[in-house]
Amino acid sequence: DPDYVVIGEGNSHNFEKITKAVNLVLRGSKLIGTNPDVSGPTEHGLIPATGAFVATVELATGKKAFYCGKPSSLMMRFAASILGTKKEETCIVGDRMDTDILAGTWAQIDPVLVLSGVTNTTNLFNEAYRPYIVLNGVTEIPPREDGQEKD
After folding, report:
1. What pLDDT sits at residue 151?
2. Mean pLDDT over residues 78-100, rounded?
3. Residues 36, 27: Cα–Cα separation, whole Å
């Protein structure tokens, strides 16, 4: 049996694969999720995402997953080290309060919320934490102070 069962984004999840994951975890494999998002926006409405499939395995096994993606501050620190930036020079831009904005909060990196995804003005204040700034979309991100192009 593998040491880990990793569940991530994709459209190939099915009952057979979830059942296999449940049985592997019950036999000792550790459960890893790439992110806890339970749903994601599409042009046709919300669809189930990684967190929904991980939750199924968690409920069936009684085992909790470790999430290696957002909102893990480990991921944010690693990204900043790859970029070679300090916390004061870095922000995270995202459309979800429960992962993107929480990731920035936990990592002490300014979180910028864009209202072009899951979070909107009706559910923006459901959490105890807040974004540093709220924009309607990524097109509203201001240019860099040094005059260089945005990456």
Report:
1. 56
2. 88
3. 23
pLDDT of residue 34: 92
- Report the Cα 107 to chain-centroid distance in Å: 13
Whole-number Å distance between alpha carbons of 55 and 61: 10
The H-or-E segment that residue 61 falls in is helix 50-61
Name which of 85, 14, 12 is nearest 56 in CA terms. 14
Distance between CA 49 and CA 39 in Å, rounded? 4
Cβ neighbors of 83 (< 8 A, separation 6 or more) are 90
pTM for the structure as a whole: 0.72
Q: How far apart are the first and last CA of the chain?
A: 42
Helical (H) or strand (E) element with 78: helix 73-83
Residue 88, SS3? helix
Q: Residues 86-114: what's their mean pLDDT?
A: 90
